[in-house]
Amino acid sequence: MFFFFPVGSEEGVRRLPYITIGLIALNTIIYFITSMAVSRQIDRLTDLDFELREIETRYMYRLLENDPRALTNYNYEKVREQILDGDIIPVGSKDYDTWSRLYNDFQTTKNNMVYEKYGLKPSKFDFIKVITSMFIYAGFLHLFFNMLYLWLVGCNIEDDWSWPIFLGLYLISGFFAVLLHTLMSPQSTIPLVGASGAIAGIMGAFMVRHFKTKVRFAYFIWLLFTRPYVGTFAIYAGIALPLWFLIELACTPAGGDSGTAHWAHIGGFVFGALVGAAMKYLHLEKKYVAPMVEDSFEKLKMSFSMREATRKMDEGNIDEAIPLLMATIHEEPDNVDAPLILARVYSEKGKIDEAVSRYNTALDRMIINGNIEALRSCYEEAREKGLIGHLSEKNIYQSAVLFEKKEQFADAVKSYGMYIALFPLGKVRAKALCRTFILFKHKLKQPSMAEQALALLKKEYPGHPLPL
After folding, report:
1. Which of 230, 252, 287 is the last residue of a domain?
2. Which CATH number characterizes residue 252's domain?
3. Does the pLDDT at position 183 exceed 80?
4. Domain count within the chain
5. Cα separation, 445 vs 449, whole angstroms
6. Beta-carbon neighbour count of residue 22 at 10 Å?
7. Dihedral sign, CA of 338, 339, 344, 346?
8. Which tens digits make up the pLDDT trace of 207-232?
9. Which helix (H) or strand (E) holds 285?
């Protein structure tokens, strides 16, 4: 005896996967509700079938008269069709009337079975049932393994691409899964149930997006006359999932219906893998999805005051947003958006001193956080508003130091130059000239600019040690 199944992956997530959890919860709730209904329906069908057979067995002799080999290839459905035609039980007899009533009840109950009502039959394609079939399961193990696979791959894809894209991929993969199953078995009358195709789509996307992520499997081996072996092993998703796909291909029926919808699994998986490949190789994730996801993460990090301030700003209620932005500045020491927004608001209102104060607050926080991209943007904004000359001596010099530390040497000499131009009596002016000379000479390889910085240093600070 041997079997194994996945139990986890080594890839973490950055936030709680609400939609994955919601789908698992919804599928589970629907299963337990429908399983009770199915149990009652099966009991009813069993009782009706028993009563029908009681009557039918009394007339088996007539069936044998028509066909001596009837019992060899006995088929209740065909026999009942013959009874309906009046070939076995005399029409108008009491037995026929009773049998007819029971048969109608049997067919009505059968047609109202959960699987018949909400599952999709390829022979009678129905777009509504494409959706409803995804939430109906044939048994607990069917549900359990579907939800296990959904949890293993769904959490990461939802985290990578955001919940709207994840949910869309889930539903559309389910549609393509059903479509391929229908194309391969167009005459099938067996209801298709379960979200295996939709989940296979997420698996296909996971294979491409997390090719090098290791998936951990549990195994159980028990051979005759040996003790059972239990343990786990890990294998790359880029190996495990293609193997699963090949197994599905190998299991596809050559003809007729199969108890498992392998073509649905294949259809969903291929669609999900194509979406994953498009995201990766057409750079769709990098260009469009990643910025949207990162923006949603930033919003999650916002305090209540900042979220409310943003909402007020979007509504145009600037005056109501100001106290909320002030509260955010005090509540979130690392927040640079609140002081920047306030600086813009005060600048538009003509309150220059307040605007400069907020720009300096933002710059101070950017320097502490080492956010050089934000620094560049902030200086450019202040320059456009004509406020660059009002910024604090400390912030401009510390910005130059940070740029140099981050090896952004062109930005560093620009900031040192800004400091030298704005603060002729600056406390660290000599040091700014020294650093400018060194960067031009050794990093930017501009000897003429280096000589100019050195000449200014000699002129203003004759006794200052000369830099090497």
Report:
1. 287
2. 1.20.1540
3. yes
4. 3
5. 9
6. 12
7. positive
8. 999 998 999 888 888 877 778 888 88
9. none
